[in-house]
Amino acid sequence: MWKTLRQIHRAGIATELPPSTDETLRVVAALQERILAVLGRALCIRAIDAGSCNGCELEIHALGNPLYNLEGLGIRFVASPRHADLLLVTGPVSRNMEVALRRTYDATPDPKLVVAVGDCGCTGGIFGESYASRGRVSNVIPVDVTVPGCPPSPRQILAGILTAISKTAPTGSASRGRA
Amino acid sequence: MQDWFEQAVRHSDAQGAAPIAGAHNAWELAVTGEQWRQATQNIGSGGGRLISLWASRDTGGENLVRAAFAADAGVLVLTLRLAGSQSHYPGIEQTFLSASRMQRAIADLSGLHSTAADQRPWLRHAAWPAAFHPLSDATIPDQTVPPVTDDYPFVPVEGEGVHEIPVGPVHAGIIEPGHFRFSIVGEKVLRLEQHLGYVHKGIERRFTELPLLEGHRLAARVSGDSAVAFSWAYCQALEGMSVARVPPRAIWLRALALELERLANHLGDLGALGNDAGFAVGLAQFSRLKEQLLRSTEHALGQRYLMDLVVPGGTRVDLSPSGADGLIDCIQSIATEVETLRAIYDEHSGLRDRFVGAGVVTPALAARLGLTGLAGRASGQGFDLRCDLPWDPYAELAPNKVVRTDGDVAARVAVRFDEVAESIRLVRQVVQQLPEGGHRRPMTAAAKGSWGIGLIEGWRGPVLLYLEAGDAGKILRCHPHDPSWQNWPVLEHAIIDNIVPDFPLINKSFNLSYSGHDL
């Protein structure tokens, strides 16, 4: 127990603050307010691998590490599409996953956002379209934001998520979740 | 040379085994159908291990079935030529159980059927018609009809109180898709049956559309967590076919990259395993160390994940002096912290309770089922290509092999800890002894009809890549093989008699690839 506590203390808080001159600071500071305004609660993301090589998943995972500390921003990954506001989809969409992706999309309540992650999710990437691949995510479900990269860095993925949120109007259909 | 090898060679009557051009300690033996069966039995009883099984079609349009085996003496590729319209070949799943799914995949992709009893499709679900064989038929059928889910015939388990839990393909975490069908009584698992193939995206056919000198990019994306292993295997095969001389510095840089890849994956897994056993501190600490390593890797070699480092003829970039210094500093701090964290993991009663005795694969079962790589070494299968058949520069690096015999989650955790320490030593050694000189030489594409293999011990286990040159510098056939093919079926055994809530932990302790398997 003491060893564990000592290690936690020694490691300290690794979470990085965005640089003070960086515009992202303003965005991040305003983000929680924005999420609350849009959703009335934390942003819930459901990640779907629709055929990726697993490279993008590794970087999505990294968002949870203490340096990016995604949960500290009020964003978390959920286990069911029924709990999700946003789908983070990696591709290319394999034909064997097409039905599962559509069903997951349909199971996500409106209003919903879709962020396609990685070159393959954006364009089909090196795999393209074939007898086994439908290519880009938008060939199968509507996409709001695309994040290119092979794989994109955690910061790029985070920027994509933030972009999707800031595109959403805080009024109108987005009143779900407010008491 | 070992008995099995000699036996296999002797059985070929007049024709002996021929060395595979450019490959290290590897031979090819052409056999007839009867010799194929006899040779595989000899290899099995002599302790040889099946590395991969695949089909190809030569430039004359004739079908070939090939199997690669490894033993201490080297690698033997058996080649069975199917005459004319022959579409059946003798299955080898009686001797090598892991061959079963590979044979089903060959039937799906190439239309060649083994004599095995299990003829269910494996990689083909319902997205394309059964009559279409992507690696044999040029014309893609009309796919404008919307896909339907097929009704895969799982093996039913019956009895009082037995019920099924279907899981996937979309899983609850941030992981790859696949389907698991549990048959359980209470919370105890009677049987697990996997249904994979969801991320099949046509990689092998896609290879045939690429020039030989560009295939390494696709190879690196067979399984994103093993980018270096697959791209190195690709380049090893291609360079062997072209008799290209790769600069020594590039060979050492590739080894550096391979060990960094092993380190990153092991650190990530150690954190995830702590988390799956309810110890969130472990995930926080190890994911922090992994992030530090990835940033240091990016500074040193240009990418967090080295998807494009290994290229034909060398490496894409060189290691800069500041990158080297950064890596050494980073490795040093990781070494110290991992030591502390290991003591915490070893002494934490909650972790021990979950790790010890969970998901046991005994050495005898592991040998019977052909468990390989990291998971194999946790079950007494002491094979590591870096030590057994060391390719350059591993003979000089002389890694220490890590073997445990308990075969449980705790053993797979311990192997990772030991291999982290060893890889840290290797990274340090490579950076300090890196040969001077260039890091890349220009290459020309291999001649039509030539073929080769690449064989690399990735972090998960042995990665094999078969490459054959076609017309005009194009790829005729490329078959990448991930060790997950061998280990997925063993996971079905490891979970028997464990409770359902332990499945995520046991599954993670293997951490097998879906994409590398589904292709």
Do you know the CATH architecture of the largest domain in chain B?
Answer: Orthogonal Bundle
Give the C-level CATH assignment of the largest domain in chain B: Mainly Alpha
Q: What are the low-pLDDT stretches of chain B, counting only 5+ consecutive residues below 50?
A: none
Largest sheet of chain B: 5 strands, mixed
Major β-sheet profile of chain A:
5 strands, parallel
Describe this protein's structure.
The complex is a heterodimer of chains A (179) and B (519). Chain A is an alpha/beta fold. Chain A has a single domain (42-167), classed as Rossmann fold, CATH 3.40.50.12280. Helices cover 38% and strands 13% of the residues of chain A. Chain A is built from 6 helices and 5 strands. Chain A has helices spanning 2-11, 23-39, 55-62, 95-107, 118-123, 154-167, and strands spanning 43-49, 75-77, 86-90, 113-117, 145-147. In chain A, strands 2-1-3-4-5 form a 5-stranded parallel sheet, with helices on both faces. In chain A, strand 1 (43-49), helix 3 (55-62) and strand 2 (75-77) form a beta-alpha-beta unit. Chain B has 2 domains: 3-114, Beta Polymerase, domain 2 (2-Layer Sandwich), CATH 3.30.460.80; 203-438 and 449-518, Cytochrome-c3 Hydrogenase, chain B (Orthogonal Bundle). In chain B, strand 1 and strand 2 form a beta hairpin. The longest helix of chain B has 29 residues, at 248-276. Chain B is globular and about 65 Å long. In chain B, helix 6 (227-242) packs antiparallel against helix 7 and helix 7 runs antiparallel to helix 8. In chain B, 41% of the residues lie in helices and 17% in strands. A 5-stranded mixed sheet of chain B has the order 1-2-5-4-3. Chain B has a 3-stranded antiparallel sheet with strand order 8-9-10. Chain B has a 3-stranded antiparallel sheet with strand order 13-14-15. Chains A and B meet through helix 1, strand 1, helix 3 and helix 4 of A and helix 4, helix 8 and helix 9 of B.
